[in-house]
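Quick one:
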Amino acid sequence: MPNLPDNPIFDITRFTTTDFPDRLACVVWFSGCNMRCPYCYNPNIVREKGTLCESDLFDFLRLRQGKLEGVVLSGGECTLYPHLHDLCETIKAMGFEIKLDTNGTKPARIRALVEEGLVDYVALDFKAPQHLFKSLTGSAEYDAFHESLTYLIEADVSFEVRTTVHPDLLHVKDINAMIEELHGLGYKGTYYLQHYLHVEPTLGKTAPPSKAFALESLIHPIPVRLRNF
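Output:
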């Protein structure tokens, strides 16, 4: 696990209408990540220290009570923050709903937050099928991700599964394998495919896609929705 900064928060996006379904929200970007996805367009958030502490966040949220409905905890990887549980308790006590953006590698922390009613929506990143997971993410924690996925499918919380698609890194056969896995596990929600948008710099200096993704070759045993394709 990477060293956690004294100030866990890299930045705050003050207003968004798109990151939390049906909610006006802000986005809290936690610094640090336990993955090294080459296409990541937030290398500064992954590599650099945070600039804000919890009290900075709470001061901001007090000014937004009655104006914003939700708080998105993102990153980086927000579940690496060891005091996330207490932070969520404070945010909920202030009257906000919470959405968690996560790579799923901390299943016990996710489970605790869900079972104590401290998160209202979870967006789980399905980075790659098992055989590509380590090479694409730099992480050997596929089993931890899979534990989070299977738990969330059965849990009483709104959640979505999403994948960023760079056609040179994930092929149609890979996405179809992921769709089949979700279907086999009993996932009933919508699977969101997010088109890789090339923004410099990326964590791995990833080049723009050399080819289009063959959307017509996708299978559809579960609902699949495209974002920015």
